[in-house]
Hints:
The structure holds 2 protein chains of 2 kinds.
Chain A: E1 2-9, E2 14-21, E3 25-29, H1 36-44, E4 51-56, E5 59-63, E6 68-69, E7 77-80, H2 92-97, H3 112-119, H4 134-146, E8 152-156, H5 164-180, E9 185-189, H6 192-198, E10 201-206, E11 209-215, H7 216-220, E12 234-244, E13 249-254, E14 257-262, E15 271-277, E16 281-284, E17 295-306, E18 311-318, E19 321-328, H8 329-335, E20 342-347
Parallel strand pairs in A: 3-9, 3-10, 7-8, 8-9
Antiparallel strand pairs in A: 1-2, 1-4, 4-5, 5-6, 10-11, 12-13, 12-15, 13-14, 16-20, 17-18, 17-20, 18-19
Helix pairs in contact in A: 4-5
Chain B: H1 6-39, H2 45-57, H3 60-71, H4 76-81, H5 92-117, H6 120-128, H7 133-162, H8 165-171, H9 181-190, H10 195-228
Amino acid sequence: MITLDIRHNLGSFALDLSFDAPRGVTVLFGRSGAGKTTVTNAVAGLLRPDSGQIRLGERVLFDSNAGIDLPTHKRRIGYIFQDARLFPHLSVAKNLTYGQRFARGKKPAASFDRVVDLLGIGHLLDRAPINLSGGEKQRVAIGRALLSSPELILADEPLAALDDARKAEILPYLERLRDEIEIPILYVTHSVAEVARLATTVVVLQNGRCLKSGPADQVLGDPEVLPTGVRAAGALIQAQVTKHHPDGLSELSAGGIALFLPGHDQPLGQSLRLRIAAHDVILSRSRPEGLSALNIIPGRVTALHSGGGPGMMVSLQSAAGPVLARITRRSAEALGLAVGVECHAIVKSVSVAREDVGIGAPSAQTPSG
Amino acid sequence: MQWLGPEEWQAVALSLKVSFWATLLSLPLGLLTAVALARWSFRGKALLNGLVHLPLILPPVVTGYILLVGFGPNGPVGALLQPFGIVLAFRWTGAALAAAVMGFPLMVRAMRLSVEAVDPKLEQAAATLGASRFWVFATVTLPLILPGILAGMVLCFAKAMGEFGATITFVANIPGQTRTLPSAIYAFLQVPGGESAAIRLVIVSICIAMSALILSEWLSQRIAKRVRGTP
């Protein structure tokens, strides 16, 4: 677990941040220029904050009061950079083992063979970095960080430089990392899709300050935060696969509510994380009849938020979890929406997109209703 | 080489010896200076940069005279070294010092460029993987700047082979002691009937220069390939 409390002047604004990152993936989320990379560089010791304290478990990495500033090479942090930063003069195998010689006597998080297997890079070992694709480079960089026996993995927008196909290639490996390796991961991104898929904990950063932090589903479902901006807002829902229908639809259960998705090859009982974008949700006071949409979630309004424009955000609490709906203010008035009102969230056909599903699947948007 | 007289052969061998030692002994200081100029910020950096490049701009005779004043038997440094049995003036060691001083700016320039071309982000990555500053330099920086080091050594060697003005001012033109190739060619041209010997030495000079250039080109291509990672 990493505990951080730092202040640093960034010129146009000051970073003043304090958060705890427990086990799993803690996503540091915010727009470009919110101070995210400053935080990771401070944790790695590549930047010295003006004041504050950074602790990794029991070890103090930085403490301005006590005058402690551990040099980067003694911090034992596996840093995955946006640009893979592989050593061009070393083969893939030698890149992977580079950190091992400095970590003698330390317990490795995973053996060489396991890491190579986990990342699917066995066929690349003899190659030179220049001959790798962007996605392959990034996988090797992840492996190299893992094999240095780190106590924390830092990932600074590791997918930002890759195209969508390469992102889809790497994301499953990051998920395996989260689920199979017991090292906390501090992950920086401004991508909603990455937060939705990877985050255990989310820390939303805005102008150097923590806007909100907590478990992923709570933070992303909070309309007051809207870290993703109004257009990209959406809620996270956990669901289990309960049935595969012969017509190609899979049935999932989210807190007892049935949801239908285009066919998935996930085994029955598999838990999936679904993202329901707020702009893909229609609200209805009565249970809709004669509608093509299959996914209807009953709930109760918990909050109404209106900004300056004609739109507003409605939060619902349902048996499946929180649901966000973005509708016009006019509709809200017409429906007579208020806190405590029962209504139904109709999730439009394309909203439960396969690319938003938690386990790696080809990105395709097929209607489910 | 039968067609070279003993006196001519002596000049060739002396030039090679002087240039070899001038290059080798400049290497550590040259590398340190190149890294300092490329990476470190310190007071007097501009002054150091000026001092290093001064021999490139000054007339070689001036450099030779300064060396004579400083490192001669009565000079401050010369007097300091004498008790240790190190005599530079009018010895081949002095010729090596003169060659080193003249070749130094060329060596530092080539190395500095290669150090500046190394992406500090790679060195940061090495540090996050647990490498201390020494190991970062030994395992990342040094392999990546090898082509530049080689280029700097070749330039320094070439300059040392051709050095004339500072050498003849500092250590004169003593056969077998300080009469290097250029000095010998100059001496042969001063005596009647010396042209044929001078021409033979000119041919030898051209051969040595060509071989050095071809060798360095070949080596740097090999190293550059290895550094870039292409097989």
